[in-house]
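Reopening: Ceramide synthase 1 still failing for me.
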Amino acid sequence: MRGPEPMPGYGQLLRRGYGSLAAAARGCADCGWELSRRTWAENAHLRWGEVLLCGLCALGWTVLRRAAARRVFRPFGEWCKLQPKDAAKMPESAWKLLFYTVSWSYGCYLLFFTDYPFFYDPPSVFYDWKKGMDVPTDIAIAYLLQCSFYGHSIYATAYMDTWRKDSIVMLLHHVVALTLIAFSYAFRYHNVGILVLFLHDINDVQLEFTKLNVYFKHRGGVYHRLNDVISNIGCLTFSVSWFWFRLYWFPLKVLYATCYSSLQSVPNIPFYFFFNALLLVLTLMNIYWFLVSRGSSATPTLPLLPQLLLCNACCLPFRAAVGAAGVGRCGGLSGKGGGQFVSAPKGLLGAGIENVVSHPRDLWEGIVTDCHCPGAPWHWGRWECDTGTKAVASPEGLGEG
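Support: Ran it again with your exact input. Result attached.
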C-alpha cells in the first residue's frame, strides 16, 4: 500500500507540471477534434436523467432563494431596522452564507470523517481510476448540490444579484466551475473535484459572513461596534485564508495532482489538457481577485493583504479621531448619487490636510484608492469627485462599508 506523498513546493510544481504538460503535448501526435470526439464517446458517462435532475435542482435553488428572500431574509432585515442600502443586499449574502456553510461542512465530512485520503494524499485521487467507475453515493450527492447550485448561480448573477464591476468575471467563474463539475463527474474525476470544492467554499463562507456583519453594524440608526469589529477581523482572516486555500493549497495539492500525478497513475488519462486548462483559468481568477480587485461591492473581492495591513495601521487611528472629534455635515455638495457629504473638522488628520469628505457609495464606484478596507466605513487615499472637491479620506458615513 502506497503511503502519502509529501506536498511539493512551488518550484517542484512548476518543474514537474511543465515537464508533464510538455511531454504530453509532444506525445499527442493525433490531437484534434477527431481524437476529442472519440475520447468523449469512449470515456464520458453522463446520463440524460442525471442532467435533467441537475437542471430541476437548479430551478429549485432559484425558487427556494426567492421564497427565502421574501419570507425570511427581507422581513428579518426590516425587523432589525437595517439601513435601506444594507437591507437590499442582506438577502443575497444570507442566502450564499447558508449554502456555502452547508456545502463546506459536507466537504469537511467527506475529507476528514470518512476513509477518503484525498486531502492528506492528493495524488491518491487518481489511484485505481477506471473509465465509467461507480461514483460513491456520498460524493454524488455533493456533486448534485454543487453542480445545480452553480447552474442557479449563473442565472442569479445575471438577474438576481446586485450587478457589480466584476460580475462579468463572476459569470465566467461560474461557467468554468459548472463545466469542471459536470465534466469531472462524466469522466469520473470526482475525487479531485471534492478537493477543489472544499478548498474554494471556505472563502465564500468567510466573505458572506463578513459582509453580513457590515450590513448589521448600523441597525435602527444605532452603530453596533461588535459587528464592526467582527467585520474587520473577518476582512483580515478572509485575505489570509484566500491565499492559504486558493493560492497555496490549491496549486500544490490540486494542480500538482492533475498536471503531474495523474499521468503517473493513468498515462493516457482522457481530456488531460482540457481539465488542466480550466483549472489554470480558475487559478488565474483567484490570483486576479487577490491582487487586482479593490471593489467593495464584488462578491469574492476584498483587498490584498498588504492593503489590509496598511488600512489597519493608518485608518484605525483616523477613525478613532473622527469618533472623538465628531462628524459634521456640510451642504452644497452633490454627486451622481445625490445626498449629503460628511466632513470632519479642518486639520483632523494633521498638518497639510484640510478636509475630509465621505462620498455616497456610487460616487467612488470605480475610483482607485490607496487603501480601502471592506467592512470598514472609511477610505484612505486621494480622489476627485464630480464637483472637483478633493478628498483625502472618508470617515464613518455613507459608503459601501
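DSSP finds ten helices and eight strands in the chain. If you still see a failure, please send the error message rather than a screenshot.
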